[in-house]
Design brief:
Blueprint (H helix, E strand, L loop, with lengths): L4 H9 L5 E5 L5 H10 L2 E6 L2 H9 L4 E3 L14 E7 L8 H11 E9 L4 H8 L24 H10 L2 E9 L4 E2 L3 H4 L2 E8 L1
Parallel strand pairs: 1-2, 1-4, 2-3, 4-5
Antiparallel strand pairs: 5-8, 6-7, 6-8
Amino acid sequence: MPVRRDFQRIASWVDPQSRVLDLGCGDGALLSFLQQQRQVRGVGVEIDDQRVIACVQKGVDVVQQNLEDGLALFGDQQFDTVVLSQTLQSMHHTEHILREMVRVGRTGVVSFPNFGYLPHGWSILRGRMPVTKQMPYAWYNTPNIHLCTIKDFEDLCDKLNLHILERATFNPRAEVSWLPNWRATLALYRFSGA
């Protein structure tokens, strides 16, 4: 099975044998990949029972917890990298989780579906909320409560005094560098505290 491009990019941003915390880790696929490719010492945080079981079956250490409760279990700078992959848009307390990421880690990595993607705009102009591979839910059953664009996220980083170290943007076919706010379905950032 091919490895997702965003997983490959995240791996390139993670130092070998470093400490990684994966927030909203799902079934542990990213941490498992990082353990194999970068020999990281990783821990995942996940709330869903079935996904926690899937993590354990993959050999991924996981803590069952609701991210909305914060990261009080973890000490300051306990990790080298803290990842929040395609979960930011479902968080109620967006600013808090970003601050917590740079408290418990030297760097943070966030990915999210880019609501600025041009076909999303066309969908709205046709009177419909967008439904795509990146955002596969209808408006009435979506877990996505805070949709944003690339520019929106960068503005939030400025507001929170987060320093963007690197950015990568992707559409379903390739990495996008030209007009990413309109052409990318997924944005990926690496950042640190001020």
